[in-house]
Amino acid sequence: MASLAAFRSEFEPGPELEVLPSQCGAQALLAALVREGVDTVFGIPGGANLPIYQHLPDFPIRHILVRHEQGAAHMADGYARASGRVGVCLATSGPGALNLITGLATAHFDSVPVVAITGQVAAPTIGTDAFQESDVIGSCLSVTKHSYQVQHADDLEEIVAEAFHVARTGRPGAVLIDIPKDVQQALVGLKRPLGRHRVHRAPTEPPDRQIAAAAAHLGAARRPVILAGRGVAIAGAEEVLRRLAETVDAPVGTTLLGTGVFPSPHPLGLGLVGFMGTGYCNLAVSECDCLVMVGMRADDRVTCRLDGFAPRAEHIIHINIDPAELGKTVDADCQIVGDAREVLERLCVAVRPQARPEWRRQVDGWRERHPLRHPRNGRLQPQEVLSAYYSRRRRGDITVADVGLNQMWAAMSWTGGEPGIFLNSGGQGTMGFALPAAVGAQAANPDRRVFAVCGEGGLVMTLQELATAVEAQLPVKVLILDNRQLGMVRQFQDDFYGGVRSQVDHLVTPDFSMLARAFGCFGAVVERHDEVGPALDAAIAHPGPAVVDFRIDPEAGIFPIVPLGGALSEFVECPYP
Amino acid sequence: MTLAPPQASGARLISVRVEDRPGVLQRVTNCLSRRGHRLLSCAVGEGSRQGELCLWLRVDTGRQPPAQAALQLAKLIDVVEVADLTEEAPSEWAVGLFDFPDPRAKGLERELERFGAQVVERSAERLLAALSGPPQLLEAARKAFTSMRLRDWVCSRPIALATTGGRHEPITQEEG
Ligand SMILES: Cc1ncc(C[n+]2csc(CCOP(=O)(O)OP(=O)(O)O)c2C)c(N)n1
Questions:
Q1: What is the CATH number of the domain that holds B66?
Q2: Are residues B52 and B78 in the same domain?
Q3: Are residue B79 and residue B131 in the same domain, yes or no?
């Protein structure tokens, strides 16, 4: 079964490579990475990390040479999301390190374990505005879970161990290790203990009374709804989520990051919730009397206007591993801190099976009255491309969406019959994420097929990583939903900003098929319906990376959509039949 | 985060025990500013545990739920323990230094004695007095001293210990 659980490997330490006193800091670092089970890193060398690159060839680590450090961070992110392991990226000091920031923020906001290792100018020159000096620790404070500037080569072993532990435990996140060049070159002496090893606050086991209260609320409910986020995928709770939903007969919606954690064709599946959620999911949340939110944050894209979010719910049960997420936006009366799988397992035992035919009939009625619709005007619609693509999906295939309309279309059309792998940048909404993240996902899963769904605007932000894909022989397939526009911004301008279309047209877009070929990829352009299937088949059949440019209807938009400032129930549907 | 007058409404008094590591103050203040909280005052001191610092922060959490500041701080890796003392009637204590240009000013000695201030330095042109106590005492002293031709004064932000919460076991010899 192609669930994230199938990808998730428990942390397996790599071979013990002894740190000998004659080794330098760079060697100690690399040995420590191997010990952490690191098999692949993404990066670019430069002045301040050359000692690491000098010794890299001696270690059993695959280095993938990227074309921009942002690409390295997204690749480490994609690697981590699609494997459950920690992704690692390397950069030199100054601009190299600063180029990582967007990628680190993207990973961190979506709770993805990434460790970034940056070279720093030699310790004695820190603070002198030395060549390529930057305060990367300071610059990354709010986009990392923790960071270290290594002062002594002897500390490296312990810092790396702690950094990986911090990245992968509790609510996962991005961690930065900044290593001055002289520390990389210094000989490792006797191991200097860092002080007492830090034991990070493990999530507490929620008390029985909380589980019992949640079960009682669910038992007493007449109109329960479950919303699930990426925390379900991180915890491997897809199966127990389904069991709970079926036991209590509660429909399940997902957040954008939770796409794929509940099978969409399931009779209880509601699809996406929120700003661009399905009408029936948003209505179900608006009418429910008991809401369970599990492994999700409930940000403004989910809740829309806060007082219009689940206004009829008598009880809201919020389950999250991060206590700070509980009560941050939605004031749940039943707040449970814990791992999604563990809590859902206990909840499954505590609830009694119930059928709620009346509620199901009501939800199914909304499903019929508010189906997902798109125009049929003869022009190529993104939904047609995506349905042709998804119909070719095999179990285990990985889909990585970029940001914009393409992302929402891809998530909305998702038709996984089983929990699948759908990756996207939910928290930051970083354009340019998909291609490098797909490259990282492919590096982690050489035997799976990896597809990136992009808009032409986002793709060109990190397009250079096609060279990386070709060079590293990572055969990702890029599907461009090309509307020659910053489509989502255009729709916002049309819908919410007086219809003034300002700076959204791409009057010049490259010929992506030629561009693909220039990079050494397969390239094709599709303008007609009948070309969609054959082009997809040709791209899939091509042994290397491929780019297919689907020239879609430039006016295609996303529906339903909740007007800015509106409540979930106030969604606007596709005006075309 | 902005520095604002300490009387802002909705302020929380949060005590934070942190590992004494480089950059830890930056992490704490960044965590608050990143979340839109205003740091009204901050005192830093040592606590009973080796290798740790104690911070006392007065924070206006603005539009955020009041619990957010402490919850977010608790997530920092260098933070050992966070306690929101606001509702706990904590004992607060601060220190002030008061600089008088005229040691013979009329009534000065009597006022210093009344507040229990200690003379730290005395010369023909200067009397420096120190006073410690609850913030209200220092505030009252400052007002009274103003009429004694006070030249300058400085006052620390208070440190605090909760009457409940915080540590429960007695401090052992090694720790102390
Ligand atoms: C790095 C970055 N810059 C700007 C934005 C704001 N933004 C969100 S969607 C969007 C348009 C995306 O256009 P395109 O990639 O062509 O995709 P489409 O919406 O047309 O599918 C923009 C500019 C963003 N999310 N990320």
A1: 3.30.70.260
A2: yes
A3: no
Beta strands in A402-469 (DSSP E): 421-423, 450-454
CA separation for the pair B129, B103 (Å, rounded): 10
B79 and B133, same domain (yes or no): no
Percentage of chain A with pLDDT > 90? 90
What per-residue confidence (pLDDT) applies to B48? Answer: 82
Residue pLDDT, tens place only, A2-48: 334 434 444 566 777 766 668 999 999 999 999 999 999 999 999 99
Type of residue at A340: A
Identity of the residue in A142, A322, A327 whose CB atom sits nearest the CB atom of B67: A327
Ligand 1 centre to CA of A454 (Å) is 10
Instruction: Name the pairing type of β-strands B79-84 and B11-19.
Output: antiparallel
Same domain, B129 and B144: yes
- Which range of residues forms the domain containing residue B112? 91-159
User: Are B76 and B130 within one domain?
Assistant: no
B149 in the same domain as B97: yes
Residue A518, CA distances (Å) to A223, A463, A513, A521 in order:
56, 12, 9, 7
Sequence length of chain A is 577
- Measured between beta carbons, the chain A residues lying within 8 angstroms of B77 are 145-146, 166, 198, 200
The DSSP H or E segment spanning A401 is strand A398-401
State which of B22, B54, B84 marks the end of a domain: B84
Domains of chain A, with CATH numbers?
4-198 (3.40.50.970), 208-369 (3.40.50.1220), 382-567 (3.40.50.970)
Which residues partner with B81 through β-bridges? B17
End-to-end alpha carbon distance in chain A: 37
Q: Is residue B47 part of a domain?
A: yes
Q: What is the DSSP string of chain B?
A: -----TT-TTEEEEEEEEE--TTHHHHHHHHHHHTT-EEEEEEEEE-SSTTEEEEEEEEE-TTS-TTHHHHHHHTSTTEEEEEE-TTS--EEEEEEEEEES-TT-TTHHHHHHHHT-EEEEE-SS-EEEEEEE-HHHHHHHHHHHHTTT--EEEEPPPEEE-SSSS--SPPPTTT-
Q: Which residues of A touch B75 (CB under 8 A)?
A: 145, 171, 322, 324
Return the structure tokens found at B82: 């966070």
Asked if residue B166 belongs to a domain, the reply is no
Asked if residue A481 has its Cβ within 6 Å of ligand 1, the reply is yes
B31 shares its domain with B56: yes
- The pTM (predicted TM-score) of the whole model is 0.94
What was the pLDDT predicted at B168?
44
Altogether, the residues listed in chain B come to a count of 176
The position carrying tokens 């060839």 is: A57
Work out the widest C-alpha separation in chain A, in whole angstroms: 74
Query: In DSSP terms, which residues pair with A238 in a beta bridge?
Result: none
Q: Identify the CA nearest to A148 among candidates A115, A103, A113.
A: A115
Q: For testing the chain A interface, which of B77, B80, B84 should be mutated: the one with the most A CBs within 10 Å?
A: B77
Residues B95, B71: one domain? no
Q: Is residue B6 part of a domain?
A: no
Query: How are beta strands B91-100 and B159-161 bridged, if at all?
Result: antiparallel
